[in-house]
Amino acid sequence: MKIFIIAVLTADGLIAEGTDQISTDWTSKEDKKFFSTRTKEAGVIVLGYNTYKTIGRPLPGRLNIVYANPDTVIEGAEVTQLAPADLIKDLEERGYKEVAICGGSTTYTMFMEAGLVDKLYITIEPVVFGAGMTLFNKKFDVKKLKLVFMQKLGEETVLLEYDVKR
Ligand SMILES: NC(=O)c1ccc[n+]([C@@H]2O[C@H](COP(=O)([O-])OP(=O)(O)OC[C@H]3O[C@@H](n4cnc5c(N)ncnc54)[C@H](OP(=O)(O)O)[C@@H]3O)[C@@H](O)[C@H]2O)c1
Predict the structure, then answer these.
(1) How far is the CA of 155 from the centre of ligand 1 (A)?
(2) What is the pLDDT of residue 24?
């Protein structure tokens, strides 16, 4: 099973101004396209409930798994409370080969901390917030990354692809 984080960051390293940021005006159409294509290719997206609420609906063409309380019902998505390793085992048993971890900060941190992430796709947009939500929200053992690919997605947008060094 290959597990990757996919995120779009401001040039000052933030993923949102706050927990409930709905607007994605600051992200480029090229990044939205990359997110859509790459996550459909993976076939499974995993997101936290705060992120799900900012989107407001399951994303089509992919299995949507949302971390939320057991009494949460989302039509068109699976709700889970499984520990990351147990969720991945379950998906593996169901034949999935790749999983996209789609945030937010709590969810990215949970999978990174569990040592399950193989790769990070980080898009950098030409905007700064000054203060806001970072990609991760907790200290964990330093993870070294290897830059394996970089691409200018658009006129002002850069995509970085990192492998996590084991
Ligand atoms: N720039 C980007 O690439 C990007 C990507 C994704 C999201 N975001 C932004 O990130 C922000 C949200 O991030 P976030 O860190 O606040 O939240 P999040 O990771 O989206 O969701 C966290 C929530 O998920 C639920 N949850 C997590 N683990 C759980 C478990 N084991 N069992 C049950 N429920 C669980 C909890 O919901 P309850 O508190 O309701 O119990 C928790 O508060 C939004 O502003 C969004 O726009 C940005």
Answers:
(1) 30
(2) 83
What stretches in the chain show pLDDT beneath 50?
Answer: none
Give the span between the Cα atoms of 2 and 4, in whole angstroms. 7
Query: Residues lining ligand 1, CB < 6 A?
Result: 7-8, 15-16, 18-21, 47-51, 54, 67-69, 81, 102-107, 133
Q: Which residues span the domain enclosing 64?
A: 2-164
Number of domains in the chain: 1
**What's the CATH number where 80 sits?**
3.40.430.10
Sign of CA dihedral 115, 134, 40, 158: negative
pTM for this prediction: 0.97
pLDDT score at 164: 96
Peptide bond into 104 cis (omega under 30): yes
CA of 12 to the centre of ligand 1 (A): 21
In this structure, the residue with its CA closest to atom 29 of ligand 1 is 67
Predicted local distance difference test score (pLDDT) of residue 102? 98
